[in-house]
Write a sequence for this structure.
């Protein structure tokens, strides 16, 4: 069963049907989890033919190359993102580094948004620069002005929108168009929208990368990355993933595919609860401002409204000037909000964030400390109670 040939079917419908091959699975709805390294061939001719077709769609050649489980997941993500095909990677960061490595060469120039996820930046500074790639960080709000930064050797323009700590919304179509006009590929980290609320490829972007670890998996129990692209870029990305040995464990792939079936309902709830909590926080005296593009007074709201169809559970809270001890008093005593990295699971999380330590093109200024919240699937009333008690601890701290 496939809805691939029905261009009008909605994302929610695609999420239920994408990547399924019920007929070949004896009628069962979900694909089996294929555990594989070695694949046996009956003849030498079959083995050699398989090796030469290794990069073709759906080839069964060796476990690392792909299994029916990984192909089902890749098909589902490609359909969700509206891309030609997708390539699975072992983590979100692995999907990002594989993509960057696909275009890295001595003398190439990459433009990277200053709002990029910290480890993405660390890879650019720690690996790409060492290999002879010239890296320039740019103001995430540059929009069409990126044209002035394009050089004859610019091969790649990297976006992350909204930035996962600072939540600036980028003018993705303008930046993608400038990249294309200048002969560079455009790449976006699309983790925040989960591919459901934003379709980068429909806005002219060549490659959309997601940390599937977050909302696709959705239950904080697997690591997963995935790269979706246009037809023109797909083969290069697939080949680099092969050369780097990218693959993911079959159980983790199954968790991600399973998570996708409920992605739309989970995100709807994450979205509603996060907005309620963001609006409540806006009115609190301890709060300086909220970084959430779906709020009408957010600087990124107009672009978000133009390009996105929804928002997720992740947003930032700039507190009024206070001491680190007061923030610790708040965070250390939370009962429902857990403290830990990652997000996108069913549970609410909070972390202190320090974007000022990462920026270079456009320094990050805030009057007070920044915390980042991920709103999970708990009842909003309970989460508000937890936050209220936390803000009271913050107020009471010396
Ligand atoms: C978590 C995250 C990643 C990295 O994903 P992992 O699966 O943890 O490697 C990349 N980009 C963003 C925006 C993230 O939040």
């Amino acid at each position: 069963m496939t809805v691939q040939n029905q261009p009008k079917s909605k994302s929610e419908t695609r999420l239920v049907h994408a990547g399924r091959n019920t007929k070949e699975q004896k009628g069962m709805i979900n694909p089996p989890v294929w555990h594989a390294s070695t694949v046996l061939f009956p003849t030498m001719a079959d083995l050699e033919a398989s090796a030469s077709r290794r990069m073709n769609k759906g080839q069964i050649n060796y476990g690392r190359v792909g299994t029916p489980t990984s192909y089902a997941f890749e098909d589902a993500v490609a359909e969700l993102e509206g891309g030609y095909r997708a390539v699975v990677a072992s983590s979100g960061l692995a999907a990002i580094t594989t993509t960057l490595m696909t275009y890295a060469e001595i003398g190439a120039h990459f433009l990277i948004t200053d709002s990029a996820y910290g480890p993405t930046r660390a890879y650019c500074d720690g690996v790409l620069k060492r290999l002879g790639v010239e890296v320039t960080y740019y103001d995430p709000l540059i929009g069409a002005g990126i044209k002035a930064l394009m050089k004859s050797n610019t091969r790649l323009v990297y976006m992350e929108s909204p930035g996962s700590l600072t939540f600036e919304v980028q003018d993705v179509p303008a930046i993608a168009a400038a990249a294309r006009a200048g002969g560079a590929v455009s790449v976006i980290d699309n983790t925040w929208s989960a591919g459901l609320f934003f379709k980068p490829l429909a806005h002219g972007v060549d490659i959309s990368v997601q940390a599937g670890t977050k909302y696709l998996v959705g239950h904080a129990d697997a690591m997963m990355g995935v790269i979706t692209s246009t037809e023109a870029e797909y083969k290069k990305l697939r080949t680099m993933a092969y050369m780097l040995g990218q693959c993911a464990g079959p159980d983790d792939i199954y968790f991600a595919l399973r998570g996708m079936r409920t992605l739309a309902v989970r995100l709807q709830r994450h979205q509603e609860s996060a907005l309620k909590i963001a609006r409540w926080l806006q009115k609190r005296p301890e709060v300086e401002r909220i970084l959430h593009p779906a709020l009408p007074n957010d600087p990124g709201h107009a672009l978000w409204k133009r390009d996105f169809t929804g928002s997720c559970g992740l947003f930032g809270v700039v507190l009024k000037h206070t001491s680190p001890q007061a923030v610790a008093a708040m965070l250390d005593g939370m009962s429902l909000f857990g403290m830990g990295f990652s997000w996108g699971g069913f549970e609410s999380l909070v972390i202190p964030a320090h974007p000022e330590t990462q920026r270079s093109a456009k320094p990050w200024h805030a009057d007070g400390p920044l915390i980042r919240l991920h709103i999970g699937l708990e009842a909003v009333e309970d989460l508000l109670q937890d936050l209220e008690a936390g803000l009271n601890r913050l107020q009471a701290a010396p």
Summary: The first strand starts at residue 85 and ends at 89.
